[in-house]
# Entry
Amino acid sequence: MSGLKTIHLALPCMMALLAPPAPASNISELTLTFAGCAGRLSAQMEHQWLFSDPASERTEAHRAAMISLIEAVMPEDQGRQVLAHRIAAKQAHAQLLTRASFNQDDGDAHWALTRAEQEIATCLSLILT
# Structure
């Protein structure tokens, strides 16, 4: 019974730690969009590195362009919140890529890959390539 009490008491703390940070209301939507894309492109690049995909160099250039866009629109005092948003997006995209690459359910793997590709395509539509 004491184990259940411990779980019951610790569960809200664990859920708070695992929840993605809520975007700060004072950050512009444009800044959040660029930050989310930079995070996704970081995850994509690292995933490509994992599989020795030569496309990683192109993804790295796209990521650098996205970071430049963030720097152009972000006020100096919002760096921490923007970084938190980038990290949350990177983690979410990495989970999609992992789900697509290492999933034994072919249908679910296909869905995850399609979703990841759509997210990257949306991001790439924001930059000149």
Summary: Residues 4-11, 13-19 have pLDDT under 50 and may be disordered.
